[in-house]
Design goal:
The protein is elongated. 55% of the residues lie in helices and 17% in strands. Helix 1 packs antiparallel against helix 2, helix 2 runs parallel beside helix 10 and helix 3 packs antiparallel against helix 8. The protein has a seven-stranded antiparallel β-sheet with strand order 1-2-3-4-5-6-7, covered by helices on one side. The chain folds into two domains: 248 residues, no CATH class; 90 residues, no CATH class. By secondary structure, it is α+β, with helices and mostly antiparallel strands.
């Protein structure tokens, strides 16, 4: 049942990807993340995205813009090797948070009522193509798929629906093959990865031949609107999924509570405890719990003199517009006895 659900989700994702000009990998990341470790998700995706690019290359071969491929491919190949190699050393979840925020920044384009193209294809600089190629290759090596991240590049430079699909396929097919080889060398290709990757690949190929008959009925403007909508939706899903996974990995928690004449947000992350407090009389303050030995000798003496019968105490370093200060809280049986402002 699980494999059937993944197949259906993959088929829908690659159908949307074809209409949106990319993004199936970003859509499938949170779905595969429920089964595979985060470091193996790019490996499974690379199998499916390679198959998708190969099938689109065959179906839309006549629409490829070869001058884009010429400048895109060399830097992308170098960068994808570097990205795949760094996958062993970098937690991709942090990168996914940034990618999610970037994708969500395209929300404003959904409300434009006129043509969304800004520059003609002839005005694309070679430097821009090389830069996009390098970034696409590097991020693709780290995450497995970043099609939607660079969707704006295609959508805003006068490419037709067929040209977007064909040129992206030509730009990315070799990258996916290199990634698969790199992931194999790094020991990231397991039996489970191969099974899920093959399932995603089957859905990807089927979607290409289905979309061939759907694409002519979609207008260019609607095509672009759907592309931006997919970017925003994928960004939201990716941000929520990666943030949740990061909190789990780092024993994190985020809580809110009302305080006297204000509100406090408290973040616990690994062994650290942070809080952001806003009160009407004191304004916005950032607080960090610190050990007592971070205080100078005079402040430590003040804290110890006020301890009395308290069984525990908490020292906070407070950052405010007026400067940096310290606060000490004294507890007995988990009940607050008093608060001391240190000077």
């Amino acid at each position: 049942m699980t494999l059937f659900i993944i197949f259906i989700c993959s088929l829908i994702a690659f159908m949307l990807s074809a209409i949106c000009g990319g993004g199936a990998g970003l859509i499938l990341m949170p779905i595969l993340g429920a089964i595979l470790p985060s470091t193996q998700i790019p490996a499974a995706l690379s199998i499916g995205t390679f198959s998708s690019s190969a099938s689109r290359l065959i179906v839309f071969f006549k629409s490829i813009r070869w001058h884009i491929v010429l400048y895109f491919m060399p830097p992308a190949i170098v960068a994808v090797v570097a990205g795949a190699f760094l996958l062993k050393f970098i937690n991709p979840l942090y990168l996914q948070v940034v990618m999610g925020l970037f994708l969500m920044s395209n929300l404003t384009f959904l409300f434009k009522k006129t043509d969304l193209s800004a520059t003609s294809e002839e005005n694309i600089s070679k430097v821009k193509i090389v830069t996009i190629g390098f970034l696409a290759g590097f991020l693709s090596g780290l995450t497995g798929a970043v099609g939607l991240l660079f969707n704006k590049f295609y959508l805003r430079h006068g490419f037709s629906k067929q040209q977007i699909m064909a040129t992206r396929a030509a730009n990315e097919i070799l990258l996916h093959l290199i990634k698969f080889v790199m992931y194999t060398m790094l020991g990231l290709i397991t039996r489970e990865v191969l099974v899920l990757g093959a399932l995603v690949a089957l859905a990807a190929v089927l979607s290409t031949f289905l979309i061939k008959y759907v694409l002519p009925y979609i207008s260019e403007l609607l095509f672009k609107k759907i592309g931006y909508a997919a970017m925003v939706l994928s960004g939201m899903i990716m941000l929520l999924q990666s943030s949740n996974n990061l909190f789990v990995q780092n024993n994190g928690s985020l809580t809110y509570k009302p305080v006297a004449e204000g509100l406090e947000a408290r973040l616990q992350w690994q062994n650290a405890d942070y809080s952001l407090e806003f009160t009407y009389d004191e304004g916005l303050e950032f607080e960090l719990i610190i050990p007592i030995n971070e205080l100078d000798a005079e402040l430590q003496k003040q804290v110890q003199l006020q301890k009395a019968d308290a069984t525990s105490m908490v020292i906070e370093k407070v950052y405010a517009l007026e400067g940096v200060s310290y606060e000490a809280y004294y507890f007995k049986n988990n009940q607050l006895l008093k608060k001391l402002d240190l000077e």
